[in-house]
Write a structure and sequence with these properties.
The complex is a heterodimer.
Chain A (H helix, E strand, L loop, with lengths): L2 E4 L3 E4 L4 E5 L13 H8 L8 E7 L7 E7 L5 E6 L6
Antiparallel strand pairs in A: 1-2, 3-4, 4-5, 5-6
Chain B lengths: L13 E10 L2 E7 L3 H7 L6 E2 L6 E2 L12 E6 L2 E7 L9 E5 L13 H4 L8 H5 L6 H13 L14 E13 L3 H12 L4 E4 L15 E2 L2 E2 H14 L3 E4 L2 E7 L3 E7 L14 E13 L3 E3 L12 E3 H9 L9 E5 L3 H11 L5 E4 L7 H8 L3 E4 L1 E7 L6 E6 L11 E4 L2 E5 L2 E3 L2 H5 L3 E5 L4 E6 L4 E3 L9 H20 L10 E2 L23 E3 L4 E2 H9 L5 H8 L12 H12 L3 H4 L13 H5 L16 H6 L2 E6 L2 E7 L6 H14 L2 E4 L4 E6 L3 H8 L12 E7 L5 E11 L2 E6 L4 H15 L6 E4 L4 E7 L3 H8 L15 E6 L2 E6 L8 E7 L3 H12 L5 E2 L2 H11 L46 E7 L11 E3 L12 E9 L4 E8 L9 E6 L4 E8 L14
Parallel strand pairs in B: 1-7, 8-9, 8-15, 9-12, 15-28, 17-24, 18-19, 18-24, 19-20, 34-44
Antiparallel strand pairs in B: 1-2, 3-4, 5-6, 5-7, 10-11, 10-29, 13-14, 14-15, 16-25, 21-22, 22-23, 26-27, 30-31, 32-33, 34-40, 35-38, 35-39, 36-37, 37-38, 40-43, 41-42, 42-43, 45-48, 45-50, 46-47, 46-49, 47-48, 49-50
Helix pairs in contact in B: 5-6, 5-11, 7-8, 8-9, 12-14, 18-23
Classes of the chains: A mainly beta, B alpha+beta.
Bound molecules: zinc ion (ZN).
Chain lengths: ~90, ~1000
């Protein structure tokens, strides 16, 4: 079971969180004309990366905040975690 | 029966407390502190079971967790448990156990005929033989194999024992209380670290209990007892015996099974049977020791052949002689230690050593005691069927290829030692890349992946002095990092005998003309010849060889067989062992009972149960409940002998004619506040929300980004910046997460707060033509007329002194209202509604009537919003705004979603107006068409229309818009029904929606 550092609550076990997918996906702006391909990329197309991956988790049984977690998908090592609105360098 | 093999003095058992127990129906006696295995051996019982495949007689091979044979069915306090190792089960008064794997009895076993047919049962036999004819598998082969090859029988009764789970955090977790574990724990504890020390056996001390060493001028055993006693007094230390750490998971999470009550005749009141510990440790010290390896020889599975370390443990811990004429067969000095213990207790052993001329302190001691030692000698085969009677022995050439003349030697047990295998399971589970250590012919942990360190014998270090030195140091260093204390601990003096190099010899060659079975895996009956066949047939990867032969796949996970299997493959393949590689170690290290894994989550505790504040009223009024997610909801209120069909019909009819009341507390409720609340709703729902006035409710549908309907419900504008959203019962949690996702990540600029208020409000739906009359009496000071409170209107009211929210919304299609009060007043509200409603013939109605009412009105619910439908499919496209953008809108432009013949909600009536259509039935054009019959749609929900008194269903049908009036067939192969039907409008009752506005 992973041990995730919620930037709001501290170290908590994985069973308090739910997974939310790739954090690098950006929703297209409302009312903007976009192509089918762009929309498909946003809704469906995801890379299944091996290695460092920025992903979303929600601290569902804690503070209910969505957070960003930088994790290695093959070793499960967690490098850093961020608040939803934090700028990531 | 007397305990003929119990020695007069010695052992750590309590001879003042005699215990009686039964094995295979026969009564025996043992002592407190015995295991079932030691007590049976004390009584001279060596035959405990039959082997898995050939049903050969089997005895005891080990004395602990590594035991491959002595698996029994245990009976305790009216319960039974299979797959118990007799070597681990502590004796208690009244214990009962039976052999497994044998039928009809352990002494006469029909399956043993397999032993004589063994030529037909080579590796892969089951794969090759039982494959065809295919139809034989379930009826003939599988039942036979199961009966013949079981490892006991699981109880079918409800387990009345209780199991607990516990979560714990510590600085240093230590697996194993041998010298390494004790030293590490002591040093870390002295630095103030929070330490958990786990030992799987009842007694702490590991190898110190049986080895002849001195630490700090005391015996090893006394030193261990002193350390444990001190650790137990320290507040920062938890010391646990009977506790096996069996799994090492990500981020230093380890799981341990503590046997709290298995050693007692019955579980004490309020105690669990077992406790599962989830431990998050900053650092882990693996001090799990090592397991002696067998040397492979002919008939090496005969009862009476056992590990030499086990024989020593039975003698030193339990005071039991495993034989009176022991033969010790060894390739290293450990065998001598066992021989010396025998000799000290007046028994004359013979030692066969495969080495030519070994010299060491231990061997000198054996010689001085006058023990008969034969060098360059091996056991070729054990003789005897149910018990060793003698051994065929021979000298062996230096290259270990040639045997000398075979002699027969009388003996009653053969104690075998092929050196030691470090127990690296936990380290390997943690992701540690293990490495092969040439000097000991075994794998040891290599580069750590997590915060773990392996020391002592588990790390391939067999010198006590070095083990203590490294373990004290590691305990100090690891704890210093955490607590920043640095209490220096003096490392005690160690006196131990030096041993000589072991012999890299593991398998005795077959003599000419002999075809003895030489077993590698004792539990799964895998012999040398089986692995040879697998390799001959082309299996190369060790993982494939393992699966083809089942080597190492039994419940002991190959603890005694893995390395010898690898040796064999490496020899045949002419590769070094590390090139063959070992199979993966996976948790659990040792079998864990299902009860412990499940913990308290059984029966009604398997999931939480949510009840509305009106639950006890429902119970008192004969509600029959149904699970709605984790909620319990009344399905109908039973009157007399009514069944579900009759009761729900009565309730639905009463709503259509008088007035009914339904508990709708379970609907999800979300409170939405903030200046941008309307904007959020406008983006989340498909329809327009910016112009909804205060005091008005609106129905809304929300989509996922892929255009599929996620949920529906009404949202009411309570005040300028305050909205009350309702969701379906099932989607409440998902919708909240959905809103939080967009507010926190996508549109953080929106100034809105959302919070679940599902549990804060109790809700009652009041529906039926007389609902307004009832409402007026409930709220005499409010104007609830059609003008005062129009359809989709909202007001606050005073319910006999309780503040209430009144919504004029309808799911039943009747004139209807929903009243909410704070949950604490829920049952007050309900009782008032029932009391005042009496004069209007009010009846409560459950979910079944609720379904009937919505189905015949053509209102969609979860069975239509099933994660596969878009608004059009549910006839909700009128709610999809063309002007504004919203979540999922872009997806609705996809060609499949705009296709001319897109599926759509329709009504379905059977032509005979009699036969109910099973939900899930497929709609087809031709009931006689060849399979697969093209499916046009499916029945999503069915009811008995109370308005027309005939069956009515909703369906999602291809090109549904143009299918009204068509005749199709509803087919349910599951219920074996074919029903001719007509497609009608989904609005079966009141298609113009006049009643809700009346
Ligand atoms: Zn948090």
């Amino acid at each position: 079971m992973l041990y995730i550092n919620c930037p709001h609550c501290g170290m908590r076990s994985q069973n308090e969180f739910s997974y939310g997918g790739d954090a690098s996906v950006k929703r297209p702006e409302l009312n903007k004309e976009i192509s089918d391909n762009e929309w498909d990329d946003f809704v469906y197309n995801r890379k299944s990366l091996r290695g460092k991956h920025l992903e979303l988790w929600q601290h569902i049984s804690g503070c209910r905040q969505w957070i960003k977690v930088e994790r290695d998908t093959s070793t499960h090592e967690i490098f850093r975690t961020f608040k939803a609105n934090e700028e990531i360098a | 029966m007397t305990q003929a093999f119990r020695i007069e003095n010695g052992g750590l058992i309590n001879k003042d407390k005699k215990l009686s127990f039964k094995f295979n129906g026969k009564t025996y006696f043992g002592y407190e502190g015995d295991t079932l295995a030691s007590a049976l051996l004390a009584n001279g019982v060596h035959l405990v079971g039959r082997s898995f495949k050939y049903h050969r007689p089997r005895g005891f091979f080990g004395a602990g967790v590594d035991e491959p044979y002595a698996v029994v069915q245990l009976y305790r306090n009216g319960e039974t448990e299979p797959n118990i190792k007799a070597t681990e089960q502590e004796l208690f008064e009244g214990l009962e156990a039976k052999s497994v794997n044998c039928w009809p009895s352990v002494n006469f076993d029909i399956g043993a005929i397999n032993n004589f047919l063994k030529i037909f049962l080579p590796a892969g036999f089951y794969y090759k033989t039982f494959m065809w004819p295919k139809s034989f598998w379930y009826r003939i082969y599988e039942p036979f194999i199961r009966k013949a090859a079981g490892l006991g029988v699981a109880s079918t009764k409800h387990d009345k024992e209780r199991y607990e789970h516990k979560y714990e955090y510590c600085d240093l977790l230590i697996a194993g209380s041998g010298p390494s574990g004790l030293a590490g724990a002591y040093a870390a504890a002295k630095n103030g670290a929070k330490v958990i020390l786990a030992e799987d056996k009842p007694r702490f001390g590991g190898s110190l209990l049986t080895s002849d060493v001195n630490i700090g001028n005391q015996s090893g055993k006394d030193w261990a007892e002193g350390i444990i006693a001190e650790l137990k007094t320290m507040p920062n230390v938890v010391v646990k015996n009977r506790s096996q750490i069996f799994g090492y998971y990500d981020h230093n999470m380890l799981v341990m099974s503590e046997k709290v009550s298995d050693h007692l005749p019955s579980t004490k009141k309020y105690h669990p049977n077992k406790r599962l510990w989830y431990i998050r440790a900053k650092e882990v010290l693996i001090s799990s020791g090592s397991i002696e390896r067998p040397i492979v020889f002919g008939n090496n599975d005969t009862p009476g052949v056992m590990l030499s370390s086990a024989a020593k443990e039975y003698l030193k811990v339990y005071g039991v002689l495993v034989g009176r004429k022991p033969l010790v067969f060894t390739n290293n000095d450990s065998g001598y230690e066992t021989a010396i213990e025998f000799k000290k207790h007046g028994v004359d052993p013979v030692v066969l050593d495969s080495r030519k001329n070994p010299e060491s302190e231990i061997i000198d001691e054996a010689k001085n005691l006058g023990i008969n030692i034969k060098n360059s000698y091996v056991v070729v085969a054990a003789q005897g069927y149910k018990k060793v009677k003698s051994a065929d022995i021979a000298s062996i050439s230096e290259d270990k290829k040639q045997l000398g003349k075979i002699e027969n030697m009388q003996c009653d047990c053969i104690c075998v030692s092929g050196f030691w295998t470090p127990t690296i399971h936990l380290a390997s589970q943690s992701g540690n890349k293990t490495k092969f250590k040439e000097e000991i012919d075994a794998f040891v942990p290599g580069q750590s992946k997590q915060n773990e360190i392996t020391l002592g014998a588990a790390n391939g270090v067999f010198s006590l002095e070095e083990t203590l030195k490294t373990s004290f140091t590691a305990g100090s260093e690891l704890s210093k990092k955490i607590t920043e204390n640095d209490n220096k601990i003096a490392i005690p003096n160690v006196v131990e005998k030096k041993s000589s190099q072991h012999d890299k010899f593991w398998c005795v060659p077959l003599p000419k003309g002999k075809n003895y079975k030489r077993f590698l895996d004792f539990q799964n009956d895998v012999a040398v010849s089986d692995v040879e066949i697998a390799l001959r047939e082309g299996y190369r990867s060790i993982e494939h060889v393992k699966r083809y032969t089942t080597l190492g796949m039994a419940t002991d996970q190959g603890k005694t067989s893995n390395l010898n299997g690898l040796q064999l493959v490496s020899e045949i393949e002419n590769k070094v062992v590390p090139a063959v590689g070992h199979t993966t170690f996976r948790p659990p290290y040792t079998p864990v009972s299902i009860g412990a894994i499940v913990g308290r989550e059984v029966g009604k505790h398997s999931k939480p149960t949510r009840k509305s504040p009106m639950h006890s009223w429902h119970e008192k009024n004969n509600a029959v409940f149904v699970d709605a997610g984790v909620w319990l909801r009344p399905r109908y209120y039973k009157r007399g002998n009514e069944n579900l069909f009759e009761g729900s019909k009565r309730e639905a009819k009463n709503v259509r004619t008088n007035v009914g009341v339904c508990d709708v507390t379970t609907l999800g409720k979300i409170d939405i506040k903030g200046p941008d609340a309307a904007e959020l709703l406008n983006r989340v729902y498909t329809n327009a929300w910016l112009k909804l006035p205060v005091g008005k409710a609106r129905y809304g549908v929300m989509l996922r980004e892929d255009g599929i309907v996620m949920d529906d419900g009404t949202t009411t504008r309570i005040s300028e910046n305050h909205y009350h959203m309702t969701t379906t019962t099932a989607q409440a949690a998902n919708v909240l997460s959905h809103l939080e996702y967009y507010l926190q990540l996508v549109w953080p600029e929106l100034n809105v707060n959302v919070v679940s208020t599902t549990e804060q409000w109790a809700g009652a739906a009041i529906a039926g033509p007389k609902s307004r009359d009832l409402l007026q009496k409930l709220f005499p000071n409010s104007d609830v007329s059609n003008e005062g409170l129009p359809f989709m209107g909202y007001m606050e009211g005073d319910l006999f002194g309780v503040k209430a929210r009144i919504f004029r919304i309808s799911f039943s299609g009747e004139l209807a209202y929903e009243v909410n009060v704070e949950s604490d007043y829920g049952s007050f509200m309900w009782e008032k509604i029932m009391e005042v409603g009496k004069e209007f013939n009010i009846q409560p109605y459950g979910t079944e009537a609720l379904s009937t009412l919505r189905i015949e009105m053509g209102h969609v619910a979860g069975s239509e919003l099933d994660g596969r439908t878009i608004p059009f499919d549910n006839a909700l496209e009128g709610l999809v705004s063309k002007k504004k953008d919203f979540i999922g809108k872009r997806s609705l432009q996809r060609s499949a979603f705009t296709a001319e013949d897109r599926q759509r909600l329709v009504g379905v009536v059977p032509l005979d107006k009699q036969t109910s259509i099973p939900e899930g039935s497929h709609l087809v054009k031709d009931d006689k068409a060849p399979l697969p019959n093209p499916k046009l749609g499916h029945i999503s929900a069915s009811c008995w229309s109370v308005e027309y008194d005939n069956p009515f269903s909703l369906a999602i049908l291809k090109d549904g818009k143009n299918m009204i009036g068509q005749k199709l067939f509803a087919m349910s192969p599951l219920k074996n029904k074919v029903i001719p039907v007509e497609i009608v409008s989904s609005h079966y009752v009141d298609p113009k929606g006049e009643r809700v506005r009346s």
